[in-house]
Every structure is written in C-alpha cells, then in structure tokens.
Design a protein that fits this description.
- The structure is a homodimer of 378-residue chains.
- With 378 residues, chain A is α/β, with parallel strands linked by helices.
- The first copy, chain A, contains 15 helices and 16 strands.
- Chain A has helices at residues 47-52, 62-67, 71-76, 80-84, 96-102, 128-138, 156-180, 197-210, 226-236, 254-261, 272-278, 310-314, 317-325, 329-355, 359-372; strands at residues 6-13, 16-23, 26-30, 32-37, 58-60, 90-92, 106-108, 113-116, 123-126, 142-144, 186-191, 214-217, 246-248, 267-270, 281-284, 287-290.
- The radius of gyration of chain A is 20 Å and the shape is globular.
Chain lengths: 378, 378
Amino acid sequence: MSEPFSFRLLKTDGAARRGEIITPHGRVHTPAFMPVGTQGTVKGLTPDTVRDTGADIVLGNTYHLMLRPGAERIAALGGLHKFMNWPLPILTDSGGFQVMSLSDLRKIDERAVTFRSHLDGTMIELTPERAIEIQALLGADIAMQLDECLKLPATRDDIARAMKLSLRWAERSKRAFEICAANGHALFGIVQGGDDLSMRAESARALAAMDFHGYAIGGLAVGEPQETMLKIVAETAPMLPAERPRYLMGVGTPRDLVEAVARGIDMFDCVLPTRNGRHGMAFTRYGAINLANARHAADFRPLDPESAHPVARTYSRAYLHHLTKSNEILGAVLLSTINLAYYQTLMAGMREAIAAGQFAKFRDHTMAQWERGDLPLV
Amino acid sequence: MSEPFSFRLLKTDGAARRGEIITPHGRVHTPAFMPVGTQGTVKGLTPDTVRDTGADIVLGNTYHLMLRPGAERIAALGGLHKFMNWPLPILTDSGGFQVMSLSDLRKIDERAVTFRSHLDGTMIELTPERAIEIQALLGADIAMQLDECLKLPATRDDIARAMKLSLRWAERSKRAFEICAANGHALFGIVQGGDDLSMRAESARALAAMDFHGYAIGGLAVGEPQETMLKIVAETAPMLPAERPRYLMGVGTPRDLVEAVARGIDMFDCVLPTRNGRHGMAFTRYGAINLANARHAADFRPLDPESAHPVARTYSRAYLHHLTKSNEILGAVLLSTINLAYYQTLMAGMREAIAAGQFAKFRDHTMAQWERGDLPLV
C-alpha cells in the first residue's frame, strides 16, 4: 500500500478501455463505478457491505463534509478514510456541483463561489484553493479541481464564460494542489463546455496542456437528453490523453455506463443505485424492477437467482415488496446492496469483456437482456 | 435441529436462573433477550447482523404481520423463518398488546377483540383461536395466548375482569393450539392482574394448573413505576412452575433486565435497543449515552473499546455523532447493532455469573459501572 498514484492502460477494445489505477490506499480496476458516500457514509451500508458489493473506491462530497462535520474536524480525527472506516481509495469532488444544486443563494466571481449553507444559512466562500485544501484535509486519494457547473440548456455565452472560468480555476487548483497535497495523491481537471462540442474541445485541450493526473467530463447528466450526453462523451474522450484515466461525473443508469465505456470512459459515480434502492427500485440483469408493485407480493423467487451477491439470491421478491410497502429501513439497506452489487457486476463484466476483446458482444447481450425485461410471473 | 420444545433449568443462584430452551429451530440460552422484529425485520438489521450480536431468538408481532403481509401470505411463502431469512427460533406475541396500543377503536367481549386496522381502517376480529391459528401459520416456535392487556393505573374491577377474561382465553388458546399447532412447538400462558398481587396470584395459579409450556408475566411496563413492576415480578415468579421458562413481556432497560433476572425471569423482549438506537442513544457498560450530544463531536474514541462487538470498538464517537446529527440511516444501523450487542453481552454476563454462583457480585459490579457513568472527556 501507499504507492503513489498511477494509471496503467491494460487493453483497449474499440474505444473501450481496461485499466488500473494505483492510489495510496490501493488499486482500482477500471472501468470503475464509485458508490457515493455523500456525508461520510454510503447511505445505509457499512463499509464492509460496500466492499462486499465489489467496490474498489468510494466518492466523498466536499460540499457536505465541509459544512458538517467540517474538513478540519475530519483531519483532526485522522482523515476521511479513518472517520468513515473505509480503508480503500477515496475520490472527493470539489463541491462545485452541490453549490449549484443545493444552495439557493450563490454568487460566482473570478475569485470564488459564495453560497448560503443549506444547513444553517451561513454564507460560505469557496475558492479553488480552499476546495483543494479541504480535499487535502479529508485525505482524498483523488481530488477534483473546483469548476463552475451549469444546468443545461444554457446560452452559448454562459457556457463559454463558465468554461473559461473553470479553466482559470483549474490552473489555480493545480498550483494549490502542488503546495498542499500529500505525496502520491492525484488531482483531476474537469472538462466543461456544456453541449457545445467546440467549447468542450477547447476545454479538453487546455486542460491536457496543464498535465493533470486524470480528466473528468463534468457538466453532463444535468438535464440534457442521453443522446446529447453520449455525443459529447464520444467527441471529448479522444481529446484527452490516452495514458490518463477519464471520469464521467454523476453518471448514470446501467445503460449510460455501458454506452459511456463504449466511448472511452474509465470511471463513474452516481447516487442512483442507493437513492433508487431507498425507493423500492432494483437494478438487475432484467432491467429496473419496482418492488412496490403488487405483482411481487406473493412471489417467493429472489430478485436474481444467478446474482453473484447473496442478498440478491436470498431474499424473496415478496419480502422485498413487504419491506418496501412497510417503509422498513431494511428494505433500503437490502435494495441499496443489491443495486450496488449489480452495478459492480456490470463493471466487472465490462472489464472482462474488454480484456477478452469481446466488449461489443457483451454490450449487445446485456442490452438484449434488459430489453427482454423482468421474469414472467410464476 | 427440529427437536421438540423443552426447557432445562441448569442452575439457580438465589432466585436467578440459568437454563436452556430447546425449540424446533434450535437452542436458546436463558436468561435470554429477544430482539423485536415487528414487521418481519429487526429494524434496519440483516438477520446475520442480529445473529452476530449474540441473539438466539427473535420476536415477531402477530398484530403487524396479520395486517401486512397477512398470515396466510407468509404461510404460503414458507413461514416467517423463511420469509425473514431467520433460521433460528422465533417467538410471536398474540397481538393483544398492539391491539391495545396501536388501534384506536376496539371492542372487547367474551368472544373476541374487534379493532380498526391502523393501516387501512378495516374492522378486524381477533379471537383466541384465530390468534393461535395466525401464530401457527407464521410457524412460531413459541406462541402466546391472546390476553387482555390493560394500561395502568386501572380500577380493581377492570383489572379483575381483564384477568378473568384472559384466563378463559388461555383455556380457549390452549384447546386451539392442541388442534392446529405443529409438533414440538410451544404455547405460553400469560399472567395478568395489573398491580394487584392477589389477582396476579390467582392468575398464576390458574394458568399453572392448565399446564403451559411456559409462562409470561404480561401487563407490565405499561406506565407503572419500576418498583411496582419489580414487586409484582418478585411475588409472581415463585408461583410459576420452576421447571418451565418465565418470560417478562416488553421489558426493558438494562437495569430492568438485571433486576428481573434477580427475581427469577428467564426471557425478555423490548424495542428499546433498536428504537433508542434510531434516535442516537447507545446502551453501554458506562450507562446510556446520547450521541447527539456535542461532547462527542471531536471524540476519536469508540463507544466501548472493550466491547465484544467490533462495531462498538471500531467507529468513533465523533462519527456516530456525525451520523446522528445528519440523520443518516447508517447511524440507526450502527447504534441498533451496538445496543443489541450490549444487551446480549449483558445477558451472557448474567448467564455466566449465575452458572458460577456469582450473580449478586455481577449485579453489583454492573450497576456500579452504570452509576460511574460515561468515560470522562479526553
């Protein structure tokens, strides 16, 4: 352990890539899905459970953790790994996205984004330098630059302004990182540019010239059609250095993951498997299944008898239906577990398929299974 | 497995008793604490987690399960053990207590209690025979007779009427049980009589004459002072057959458990460890600890470094405080686990102490630790 950050590209199959990231807290097999641990916990699950779903790495949210319990507090307690009892790699975002989505009052200028805390209403200023400092205090293996993330649709002028500001913040983030980050940790730049391909290209080229440890594509999955997102991914990914990992932020559905891997993405994070699990929705080989539906009430079968994870093989649909209808915490726990396990199984399947040069076949087979839908009623 | 119900009294130490109950689903070491699995789940915890806290047996609630998903539904799915994936013993209550505490409209006559479901408002009739049938459908290793449970204080007339009705229902429950219960399962009678010792005595003697597999003391922990409860337990327990297990229903705090074991009780159930866990309260060797309190915010120490359970030894007080303040599900999960583990450690300590003839010493030591209170601040 405690090797410095590195990335090895092991195999390509079309645009799809099989690789591995080394971090001070261990190895991440890519393409990788990162469960989201917003407030220092992947909601409802112990770290052991998260690990047992197959996760190599989790994501922590700078915005939430800086507000509560505070970055300095976590640092004093030994860092985020120790705080949440997760000994494996952690990537933290920069807080920029949540400032946009969670705080109602905010002001962006050259120097910083200033916003009102959604917890207690205090005004807080976040500069690119402070965002890096917070992530260093948390002890993130991989930190993200502060950027400005717009909702789409947006005007061309707004997109250009935010993209250029994000580039200047990328430079400031990098300088700050070089001063305060621990040895071997990594910083990723974030490509912005909305749904404008020429601005995406400008952003990608400028960031590549700055030489980050990895590159994210940000500002997607913010309201645009899937087609738009995939087009931007397809055009942007090849502009990024092949020998560095590529991370598509905040994405997505199982279908999004397969399509984005097909276009050269290595890393993902998304709240869908846990959020939907808390609302009675399961992701499976048979597509998405709503456990609240009365069709499951008397169904003694497990969600997926061939799942690699015991929870998906053990509990009956009738029981999961009962827990969901009864608003029992265990329903959220079991379905979050099942969903994260399915996401990890999907990623492992993609990794194997790429290694074997069979990615296109895997993708067709997986999509065909989803399209056939759930098992017929017994 | 699948041995018929039996009870062996292994050792006594004063009035305290060390024993073991054999059931068709395995062995229960007594004195025993039964975690409550109201709606077919010990709230928030997987069966593996419940087992790992040291539980030999859980309790299921007839009232909740008959309303949702329904006893016939659970029977068709293979019974409650299979439904909730708990392979060890299950005791079910008869529904009487929840009818009193949860349904706002109810009518009791000789034949049945009729009540309005708190879920959908339908009127439901529960006879002693139907309560037994439901418990047989659930597959309970130990079933309870239907009784009438009063809130205290109550008038002497009301107490006498309810106690006598409960005795007649005990006879009907026993006849129904002999017809419909599976081989080797057990039925317990329930002593009523409020806070009136002579009525408790009348109830205990009449039930003993009916020859149940075990005897519960019901109608306590319903608003009376602890002193009253312990007095009734102390007077009632010796009237029950020594060779049968004695179960004090719905009790209690750690202190209640120790005091009731000292007075000859073998079995307990209570929602406190899980309910209080969901509200940021921990039960420990140092007494009850409120994790929401700001004193824990920067405390890197675990709740109890000497706990037998890894969860109590691993997560810092600061992290448990953070999860509690953030209303994170994992806070409820971890504190419920810690509390159930503490309850089981306490029971195991009492069992060992009784076996060694050291119960009085154990009791004094345990109480002195609680009285010293929590660890001083670092």
